[in-house]
Amino acid sequence: MSVIQCRKATKDYTKKRDDMMTIQANDIIEVYKIEKNGWSHGKNLTTNTIGWFPHAFTVLNETENCDSQSQDYESLLNQELQIEHELRQKLVDVRQQKQLNIMFQIAPEAEELEQQNLLLKQQILLREKEVLLQKCELLRLLGTENDQIVYNNEVKNYSDLQKSQEKAVDTLSKLTEELTVQLVSEKTVCELQQKVDELNTKVRSARSESEGVKSKIVQDIGEQIKQQKDGRLEILLGIDYCDIADEYLKVVSK
C-alpha cells in the first residue's frame, strides 16, 4: 500500500490516457482541494481496484521541489540581467569620461593653433594694407583724373580683399572645429573597444552558468521521480520529464 498526495481529481481515471499513472488496490489517495489562500487537505480515499489516475493531479511534493528549483533559476537570471545592466552603465560612464578627457586635451591645442592662424592672417592683412595705402598716396600726389580713378579702384580692391580675408578666417575656424570633433570620435572608438570585449566575455560567462543550472534542475527532477517508485507504484514510461522541465524553465525565463 502506498500513499499518493494529489490535488482534487475531477476526471474519470478508469480509462488509461497519456497523462495518467497507475494506482493499486488499497492505495491511499490524499485529496487536496483549491481554496482562496492555496491548496487545503480535503479527505483520504482508499482505492479498492487497480486503475489509472490523472498524473496532472498527483505528487504535490514534486511540484514544490520544482518551484524551489525554478526560484533558484529565476534568481540566477535576475543576477545575470543585473550584472549586464551594471556593465553597460559602466561602459557608458567610461565612454563619457573618455570623451571629456580627450576634449580637455585637444581643446587647448586646437585653440592655440587657431590663434596662431589668426595672428598670421592679421599680419598678412596689415602688410597688404600698408602696400595699398602707399600706392594710393602716391597716386593721390600725382593729381591727374586718371590717377584718381586708379586710386578709387585700389581702395575698392583693398575693401574686397579685407572681406575675402575675413571670410577665409571664418572658414578656417569651422574647419578646425570639424577636425576636433572627428579626432574625438576616432580616439573614443579605439579606447572603448577593449571595454566592449570585456563586457561580451562576462555576459557569455553568465549565460553559460545559467545553462549549467538548467541541466542540474532537469537531473534533480528525474532523480526525485525515480526515488518515488516502489513495487506497486509505476510511473508511466511515456512521459518525458526532461521535456516537462525544459518547457517549465522556458516559461520562467520569460
From TrEMBL:
<dbReference type="Pfam" id="PF00018">
    <property type="entry name" value="SH3_1"/>
</dbReference>
<keyword id="KW-0728">SH3 domain</keyword>
<dbReference type="InterPro" id="IPR001452">
    <property type="entry name" value="SH3_domain"/>
</dbReference>
<feature type="domain" description="SH3">
    <location>
        <begin position="2"/>
        <end position="63"/>
    </location>
</feature>
<protein>
    <submittedName>
        <fullName>SH3 domain-containing protein</fullName>
    </submittedName>
</protein>
<dbReference type="InterPro" id="IPR036028">
    <property type="entry name" value="SH3-like_dom_sf"/>
</dbReference>
